[in-house]
Write the structure tokens for this entry.
Amino acid sequence: MLSQLALQHLYVRHPAAAGQAAWALRDLNLNVQAGEQIAVIGPSGAGKTTLLHTLACAQRPAGGEFSLFGQDPWQLSSAARHRWRRQLFLAPQTPPLPARQRVVTAVLAGRLPRWSLLHAVRNLIKPAEPQAAWEALARFHLQHKLYARVDKLSGGERQRCGLARLLLSEASLLLVDEPLSALDPTLAVQTLSALQQEAARRQATLICSLHQVALARSHFSRIIGLRDGAIAFDSTQVSDHMIDELYRNAGSAPSAPPEEGDAAAPLCGDPRCF
């Protein structure tokens, strides 16, 4: 079966270390089939966010092979790659939502890839599908904030607003970075369940980075452990010993890769929702 995405010996240079032998990701090998749901765990600084941004084509690899939907996105023109991105959605930990925008408009931005420029401008003046936005927010218990301004939301509410936007996309690859970091335990479980149910409903692939190891183990059958920019394990049977080893003495410096090629600059310095 053809993988939806495949990485072979992938290297990604840390954006802040251009010209230096510092790798955010190194020698990654990964195959993901359409419809899989995968949790990515690991210590802070392990490379989880960089991995998601790389898969979203927001950061260009420095070496190795990267295949997404059967082709290398970096072989496409910039315009073609931008059109092609409608197949995926990146939800950053802190969604870059305009502060003065109303929640309904921010959520409906998930429809932008399918709208014309004129329709998108009209939506800024009068929301085109307020009922759809309300229903998406309701999945995350946030429907009462439909017409609130984004800058009036708490951190956890902003996170859920960004995830409601995801529900209105048509993406078949959902990349979600630490969606539970500002949520209480009850909301965290409800939010994670809503994401997984949506991915299953549309048969989309879900790759979610998490700091909550217990939730990763209880909700995902496949877990990837990332440490120092490398995959420590990729397994459906994650033991307590594997978890202990993954987090033991976290923060140790990564070893240098075998070879250092020419590094390409990131596509953008501030990855966004797609």
Summary: The chain has nine helices and nine strands. Residues 14 and 24 are 5 Å apart (CA to CA). The beta strands are 5-13, 23-32, 37-41, 63-68, 88-91, 173-177, 205-209, 222-227, 230-235. The mean pLDDT is 85.
